[in-house]
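Team,

Forwarding the record for the chain on the shared tracking sheet. I've put the sequence and predicted structure together so nobody has to dig through attachments.
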Amino acid sequence: MTAIVRTEDVLGGDPRIEDTRVSVLHVYELVAEGDHEPVDVADQLALSLAEVYSALAYYHEHPDEMREVRRSHDDALSTLAEESLSPPEPATSS
């Protein structure tokens, strides 16, 4: 069975497929929200089909954790959007 791991210094600690930088959330989004077949996702991300299904199983077996990961991503995107719409004022020289 493919291991799903969390390492604080890789992908911000999001759950990912061991020995990759492919997050569980990314696999889920491609399959469930992107309407891609698991076999196509495996091919696109250079994963085995078993790794794709392990990521999907992990997503569904850990709904609270995945909700928190998604919330964290949404918060980061909101912060980036706000900062890009309101850049800091340039420093004035005296």
